[in-house]
Write a structure and sequence with these properties.
There is one protein chain. This protein is an alpha+beta fold and 107 residues long. The protein has two helices and five strands. The chain has helices at 12-23, 27-54; strands spanning 61-66, 69-78, 83-87, 92-95, 101-102. The N and C termini lie far apart (53 Å).
Length: 107
């Protein structure tokens, strides 16, 4: 099993046990594990999106990166998956909330 940066957070014996367990699985068991892993990752993604979305409101000034360029605008609509941002040039963007950074209001 290849080393990944997040493996440092998990004890070495976990990886040895996981590797041994996976090697002992049938193809059907590996396919079930793959499906279950995908389901878990999608759930984690939804939770992260909801947390990011809960920190935003319509009329918030935000920024995000697109092709190494910073786009600045105002949120004009929020839904379950995206925020619609109207930039300073009046272009509309549908952006995942996890990519948005709030811009502090100047006092």
């Amino acid at each position: 099993m290849g080393k990944q940066s997040n493996q440092k957070l998990i004890p070495h014996d976990f990886w040895e046990n996981a590797d041994r367990t996976i090697k002992g699985m049938t193809e059907e068991q590996v396919r079930i594990l793959h499906r279950k892993t995908g389901e878990r990752l999608r759930l984690i993604d939804r939770v992260n999106q909801m947390q990011a979305l809960s920190k935003l409101s319509v009329t918030d000034r935000v920024s995000f990166m697109r092709n190494d360029k910073r786009i600045v605008g105002t949120i004009i609509r929020l839904n379950r998956r995206t925020a619609t941002v109207l930039d300073n040039d009046r272009n509309s963007w549908n952006v995942s909330p996890s990519f948005l950074k709030k811009i502090a209001h100047k006092s």
